[in-house]
Amino acid sequence: MIFRYRCASFSRWCRRWIGYRLRNASRGRDRLNQMLYVNAKTVMPNFILNYLADRMEMAHSIEGRVPFLDHRVAEVAARVPVNMKVKGIREKHVLREAAKDVLIPEVYDRQKHPFTTPPTRNTNDPMLGFYRDTFASRAAKDQPIYDMKKVGAALDQLLDCPDDQRIAVEGGLQRVASVIVMQELFSMT
């Protein structure tokens, strides 16, 4: 029990420290660019290198290139005006427009499909602790979007779901956790 308390306390301290650093680094940017900055500094490094590139390529003995990982491309993309990054609910607007002449309409108009992480498999998975801490936070109670009782019920039933359903349920939990972390980091009300 003491270990669990210390882990929860450390987890809260880490979230506050990271939030402080990210808040200062993203100050003065509009909301979309703040969220993109936080995502680029927290989620994307692990996501790209572990799931889309290096490790997946090594696991299958192939050589691959991730062209958008180049820092010069990322720097140019960061300077693109917000109204060109997202058009309505359509993401990657500039990229789609740049490739419009060489894409078939089905690809050009297709909705983005995210690559998800493997589902949580057991009660010792650190993501369960992260979800519990995040969903019990003050930011979770303050956010106006999700019904936290239903979110808690989904979390309680997560490990009982079949794998194919668990991926979908956990994807929803990840989105809720993302909103709560953004709420906490940027005091969005």
State Rg. Answer: 19 Å
Q: What would you call the structural class?
A: mainly alpha
Fraction of helical residues: 55-70%
What oligomeric assembly is this protein in? single chain
> Quick one: how many beta strands?
0
Mean pLDDT: 77
Strand content: under 5%
What is the overall number of helices?
12
Largest β sheet strand count, sense and barrel closure? none
Order of helices and strands: HHHHHHHHHHHH
Report the span from N to C terminus: 34 Å
The parts where pLDDT drops under 50 for at least 5 residues are 1-6
Sum up the overall morphology in one term.
Answer: globular
Structure description:
The chain is mainly α and 189 residues long. It has a domain at 1-28 and 116-189. The protein has 12 helices and no strands. The protein has helices spanning 2-26, 31-42, 44-52, 54-59, 71-79, 82-85, 93-99, 105-108, 126-135, 138-142, 148-157, 163-186. The radius of gyration is 19 Å and the shape is globular. The model is unreliable at 1-6 (pLDDT under 50).
